[in-house]
Specification:
2 domains, alpha+beta, three-stranded antiparallel beta sheet, Alpha-Beta Plaits, 5 helices
Amino acid sequence: MASRDTPELVAYPLPQASSSYMHGGNPSGSVVMVSGLHQQKMNCSRVFNLFCLYGNIEKVKFMKTIPGTALVEMGDEYAVERAVTHLNNVKLFGKRLNVCVSKQHSVVPSQIFELEDGTSSYKDFAMSKNNRFTSAGQASKNIIQPPSCVLHYYNVPLCVTEETFVKLCDDHEVLSFIKYKVFDPKPSAKTLSGLLEWEC
């Protein structure tokens, strides 16, 4: 596969206890403040995609007075704890994120403006079907870990090939993966699963 000079998408350090609640023993709120967001490439939906791995997302709001900064209201304080532990200091689109517990108790939809990609600076995700912790059974299936170089894909139609993923990366201007693996499906399987690995 041809390599391209594309900015590093995600680089991750080991999780570290850097937020104030870690030193106090207990998380202290359900709102996260994240700064260092790429202003041209990040919006509410992408922030949701990043944080929904660690808990349900209620609301996301970008701050007008502090460019590249957003507030994320999560389902509970433990979701905040997981998000801070796994996302603080992660490098995304060439910028290092600072993720910490906010002093705000909730996200209020005020000072709404248009982001650089034309989308709204505020979005409510409380009823989103993409929230992954809506029941104990669903939550128990989630694997909590920091961002990594390996993507596990599943529930993919049988017609999908390596070339399909390459085209998907090209269409979204994402550096292509360096390794591709598909797990051998059972004879009765209707979908595929496997792994994609990127260079970190």
